[in-house]
């Protein structure tokens, strides 16, 4: 507790103890305040108590926050405290908040209302991207980040309610995510067979493991552990391009590592790839890189290179423009779920704890499954295989009745 000592009628000294030094002496911080004349005499005790509480927070936590703090200041401190987000995710939050600050950054937390959020959304809808209006889904992503900041303020008992959660939002139409059919996957594998070794290995692992681009770019040889008839791959890092910082290596998106088993056939392919990379390094009189995906000089390949290269491959084999590198991750999840692998296992393999999010985001019914569903429904209605309606017999009955 802070100690308060009155020095004059409106002058007080506040002292806060903050532990002890190694020699046993107490660590104390003191601050002298003068109560403004605008504060009435009977309100002075409450004013001083509030100042003492804020000073104690400042001493013990290194900063003090209250509901009168402006949104921008609180949001910047919130960003600095975050450690569970991947660097690229945190960078995107920072970029979005920089867009938001001119509209609500100067408003104190205690004065933020749902109408401020609605006005913010209206202003964001006026923005354009590459000459086109910003989509409603993008606009609502900005609000999601604002809501995360305000939820943190509510959790710390600075706010009673989160005004961003009190806004009525229009329904957004989710973009339909297409996944390759089995015939298209075979066509893609044929195209990859003609690609340079590092590209072929990268896209094959993307198909086989469902890993994100950054996770594959961060793979090291030490991440593989050989078992009796399989290979254990540990995913614990990610490399991504962060605006203003370049390529940054950090933890996975959810901050947790996971393990993926690879079959015997893939073991042979990875061994062959390792042997080839080792031979290239020996010929160039250099050490083998710790990382899997390096160029002929042993230098790490930029993550964007894999994205651009795959788009060219897609174009060469006539794939839709909607397909991208992340499409391979969608295919991985969809294929496993359709083959009967349980949801929790698939969620663990791709690094998701929420199976509901997994199904909503990654599970896409393919044409073959839709046709199978139609046949299943027919079997349910007519288990004996007879037609639903005998139209010929019905016509005969109608003629007799006439």
TrEMBL record:
Looking at the UniProt entry, the stretches that span the membrane are none
**PROSITE patterns in UniProt:** CB (PS51900), TYR_RECOMBINASE (PS51898)
Listed A to Z, the keywords are:
DNA recombination, DNA-binding
Q: Give start and end of each Core-binding (CB) domain.
A: 69-154
The record's section on SUPFAM superfamilies has: DNA breaking-rejoining enzymes
- Keyword field contains DNA-binding: yes
Query: Where does the Tyr recombinase domain lie?
Result: 174-375
Query: One short Pfam family name for this protein?
Result: Phage_int_M
Query: Which family does this protein fall into?
Result: Belongs to the 'phage' integrase family.
Q: Which PANTHER family match?
A: INTEGRASE_RECOMBINASE PROTEIN MJ0367-RELATED, PHAGE INTEGRASE-RELATED
Q: What is this protein called?
A: Site-specific integrase
Source organism of the structure? Oscillibacter valericigenes
């Amino acid at each position: 507790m802070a100690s308060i000592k009155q020095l004059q009628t409106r002058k007080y000294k506040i002292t806060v103890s903050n532990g002890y030094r190694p020699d046993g002496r107490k660590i104390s911080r003191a601050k002298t305040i003068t109560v403004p004349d605008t504060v009435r005499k009977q309100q002075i005790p409450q004013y001083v108590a509030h100042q003492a509480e804020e000073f104690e927070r400042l001493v013990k936590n290194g900063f003090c926050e209250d509901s009168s703090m402006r949104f921008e200041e609180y949001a910047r401190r919130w960003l600095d405290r975050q450690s569970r987000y991947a660097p690229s995710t945190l960078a995107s939050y920072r970029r979005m908040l920089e867009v938001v600050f001119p509209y609500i950054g100067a408003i104190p937390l205690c004065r933020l209302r749902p109408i401020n959020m609605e006005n913010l959304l209206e202003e964001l809808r006026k923005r354009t991207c590459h000459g086109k209006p910003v989509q409603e889904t993008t606009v609502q992503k900005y609000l999601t980040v604002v809501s995360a900041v305000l939820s943190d303020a509510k959790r710390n008992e600075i706010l009673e309610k989160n005004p961003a959660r009190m806004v009525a939002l229009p329904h957004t139409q989710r973009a339909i995510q297409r996944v390759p059919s089995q015939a298209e996957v075979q066509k893609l594998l044929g195209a990859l067979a003609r690609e340079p070794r590092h590209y072929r290995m990268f896209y094959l692992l993307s198909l086989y493991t469902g890993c994100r681009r950054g996770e594959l770019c961060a793979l090291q040889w030490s991440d593989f552990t050989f078992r009796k008839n399989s290979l254990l791959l540990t995913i614990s890092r990610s490399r991504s391009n962060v605006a203003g910082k370049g390529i940054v290596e950090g933890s996975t998106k959810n901050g947790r590592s996971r393990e993926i088993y690879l079959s015997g056939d893939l073991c042979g392919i990875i061994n062959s790839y390792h042997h080839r990379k080792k031979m290239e390094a020996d010929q160039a009189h250099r050490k083998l890189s710790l990382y899997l995906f390096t160029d002929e000089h042993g230098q790490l390949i930029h993550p964007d290179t894999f994205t651009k290269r795959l788009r060219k491959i897609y174009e060469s084999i006539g794939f839709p423009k909607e397909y991208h590198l992340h499409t391979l991750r969608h295919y991985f999840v969809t294929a496993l779920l359709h083959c009967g692998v349980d949801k929790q296992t698939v969620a663990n393999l791709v690094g998701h704890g929420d199976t509901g999010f997994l199904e909503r985001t990654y599970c896409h019914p393919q044409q073959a499954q839709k046709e199978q569903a139609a046949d299943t429904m027919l079997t349910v209605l007519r288990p004996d295989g007879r037609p639903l309606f005998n139209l010929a017999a019905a016509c005969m009955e109608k003629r007799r009745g006439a």
